[in-house]
Amino acid sequence: MSQEIVPRQAGQSLAPALDASAVSPDYFVQHYMDFLPRYIANGSPSAETLKTYQVRINEFIAWCRAQQQHPLTIQDYGLRVYRGYLLEQQYSNDSVHGNIIAVRAFFNVAVKMGLVASNPCTDISTPPVYYNEKPAPFYTTEQIQQLCDVFADEPSAFIRNRNLLIIYLMAVEGMRTIEVHRACVEDVNLDVGVLMVRGKGARDRQEPIYFCDGTAQLLHAYLQAIQTECSDRVIQKDGMLTPLILSDSHRNELGRISKNGLRYIVNKALRATKLKRPGQTCHILRHSCGTNLYGATKDLRAVQEVLRHKDPKITARYAHVTNRMENRLTSTLDIRKRSQD
Length: 341
Hints:
There is one protein chain. The protein folds into 2 domains: 25-113, DNA polymerase, domain 1 (Orthogonal Bundle); 141-317, hpI Integrase, Chain A. It is 49% helix and 4% strand. The protein contains 13 helices and 3 strands. A 3-stranded antiparallel beta sheet has the order 1-2-3. The longest helix is centred in the N-terminal third of the chain and has 20 residues, at 47-66. It is globular, with a radius of gyration of 24 Å.
């Protein structure tokens, strides 16, 4: 791989230039992150999306260097070798799929900028991802209540209602961690019971969730507690917006709570109830919402609407888990039950 990469001058990038011909292949490989955001997620990717793409594309570039190949000279066969390498390294089907999608986007930008004639990744298939190959873990409604009970004796109404609201937004309303993190006071309309969710991907994309009475009561109590307990302190704005879930840490007092802060609160409840399991994250609360909702309604369309899934195959796994739990097909072979009858 050529080492004659055009160095970036301080405070200067070729990305804003209208003449793409000024960008050399070497410059592009070193500075592709200056160009990629214009071509993914409708030109408005979130920081999390960009980070994921960057990690995966950097893996591909590192592999090319190990093969002593310039990334933009890799053709169809080379990409098939790369896919095989990922599988040999025991990457999951999900990870291989994500890596190929990222590399395809990398070459798509190179094509648009006239650096390669065509995208060699177009025909590279990825291993199938079976959403039902393993059931999503979940907590029952009784266990969710146990998580809420952990915070019942918290003396601060602000902290108590905030922590309960976090559990409710994830486990009852099905919000993702990133969505709870991004939520703003301006997104809430208590009069009609709606919260405009800033979903994953583009940060300015919003979808409504119509929350239940319990969530409405917690929202009202939480916002009231902020006025009562925090009136002598300044809430840290996020631009023109007011973060909904506020931090109580000394380093970020009344600022937007971090994703790690959300995880800390959820994990505190999980450990206190002995429900914490290795490898499980806050996302299990969203899974719990989907599984419990299907168990109560048997309506996959309702689950898809609440969880805001675009692909119904993802939603179907909740029915898969619930139906298997309820049917227990081997009951007809239960010898102990026969002898008791």
